[in-house]
Amino acid sequence: GVEVGPQPQGVARADVLDKMRKIVKHGLDFVQLFNEGQEFPPCTIEVYKIMEKVDYPRNKNGEIIAIIHPKLQDQDWQPLKNGDPLFLTLDGEVIPYQGNCTVYPTFINEAAYYEKKQAFVKTEKIKLTAKHLRLSVS
Description:
Blueprint: H1 14-35, E1 43-54, E2 66-68, E3 85-89, E4 94-96, E5 104-106, E6 120-130
Antiparallel strand pairs: 1-6, 2-3, 3-4, 5-6
Protein name: ACY2 Aspartoacylase
GO molecular function: hydrolase activity, acting on carbon-nitrogen (but not peptide) bonds, in linear amides
Organism: Illadopsis cleaveri (blackcap illadopsis)
């Protein structure tokens, strides 16, 4: 599956649709070349591995007491380091990120995840290496 976004529910954005078309085209081109016998050399790619889902700060009644900090909003896939602003309380207090490594948040402040108690997802950037790939003809 391919998920391209972020994009609010019920909204059709031309830029996101264009990205989706490009990634689907690349996928179909790969399948065609593979089926034609094209050999693909080994490669290394960077990917983002989910570490954990992070909830909003809440009070003892389970009510949200802070929102995503403006400096984090719309910064999906950008590095988040220890001490960077994370949340902003309704009283104006900044709650910083406290972590021992740089993470890459995604799905930041997505409306569809409020009910799932998810402010964002922490990911780590890792490298995957693929061996060469070719069609095996029997």
